[in-house]
Write a structure and sequence with these properties.
Elements (H helix, E strand, L loop, with lengths): L1 H8 L27 H4 L15 H10 L2 H8 L7 H7 L8 H6 L12 H6 L32 H14 L1 H9 L13 H17 L5 H8 L7 E4 L6 E4 L1 H7 L4 H29 L10
Antiparallel strand pairs: 1-2
Length: 292
């Protein structure tokens, strides 16, 4: 019995996420801002975004829903090229509620106490703090093997332990950046960029044949600098022009307009290419990645 009690004192750590997981946050009735300090530190991907939309895992779900091969697999009940991915992510087209999908309990003997999101994206339980044999030769960079002088008082031990971690700060940071989740986030991308790429993709599907790229750029709300700088041949005079400024002067603005439209078309193409890459790679269980 004493051995069981002793083992319970040194439990493994709780499951955690390297990137902020989605959760339902409450807003202040007076300011409308999220009450949670954790959400206050996160820049929302778009205006009035829900708490659970302020997470890379929400966009993982959204981009996977736009993968044609995975959609076909869902229609066929898990059959097809994406069947291995389907075994983990399930039918994401069953309903449009991300939170229901994320919080769904998985019918599995090993993961019955976890939600689907935790099963897919959380890190394994942190390792135990254990006694190391004196003869142990541990070459694992993920572990610091230390000797604890038992005669030293606990407050001083804690102080020295913190100092030890500070002295190995770089090693600690490098290890903590490595995800050991079943599906690790492949790169750090701003949520606003993911949202913009997703919006561009949806606009492209709706207006592919009816609008020009610069028009679709405006629909997507992509910011483009519309100030065009011109200099005289001697470089002595520089002028910053816009279409509106030339219109007010009653001067020809066709060159400025053409340049602005070129910029908008290029910006739109960049986001569309990014979206295509995200969608292709998410079908391989890799997100957010633009690697070809």
């Amino acid at each position: 019995m004493s051995d069981i009690i002793e083992d319970q004192r040194y439990k493994v750590g709780k499951k955690f996420f390297i990137y902020a997981p989605p959760f339902k946050g409450r807003r202040s009735k007076t300011t409308g801002e999220f009450i949670s300090r954790r959400l206050q530190r996160i820049t929302p991907p778009f205006r009035d975004a829900e708490a659970w939309q302020c997470s890379v895992y929400y966009f993982w779900w959204e981009f996977l829903r736009r993968h044609e091969g995975y959609q076909d697999c869902c229609i066929r009940g898990g059959k097809g090229k994406c069947k291995k991915l389907y075994a983990d992510f399930g039918n994401i087209h069953e309903h449009d509620d991300f939170w229901k999908w994320w919080a769904q309990k998985v019918d599995d003997e090993f993961y019955s106490d976890l939600s689907r999101g935790e099963r897919l994206f959380s890190e394994p339980e942190a390792g135990k703090i254990e006694l190391a044999e004196r003869s142990l030769n541990n070459d694992n960079d993920d572990v610091l093997t230390i000797n604890i002088p038992l005669e030293v008082r606990t407050p001083f031990l804690i102080k020295q332990f913190r100092k030890l971690l500070e002295d190995h700060k770089q090693q600690v940071q490098e290890v903590r950046k490595v995800s050991r989740a079943k599906y690790p986030v492949s790169s750090s991308v701003r949520l606003s960029s993911l949202y913009q790429a997703l919006r561009v993709w949806d606009i492209e599907q709706e207006y592919r044949k009816t609008k020009k790229k610069y028009e679709k750029c405006d629909l997507a709300g992509i910011y483009v600098n519309e100030i065009v700088t011109f200099s005289d041949p001697d470089g002595r005079k520089t002028e910053h022009l816009t279409v509106e400024k030339l219109k007010a002067r009653g001067e020809n603005y066709s060159d400025i307009l053409q340049e602005v439209r070129r910029r908008k078309s290029q910006a739109y193409t960049r986001y569309l290419t990014a979206a295509e890459n995200y969608i292709r790679n998410v079908g391989e269980g890799n997100f957010p990645s633009q690697k070809k």
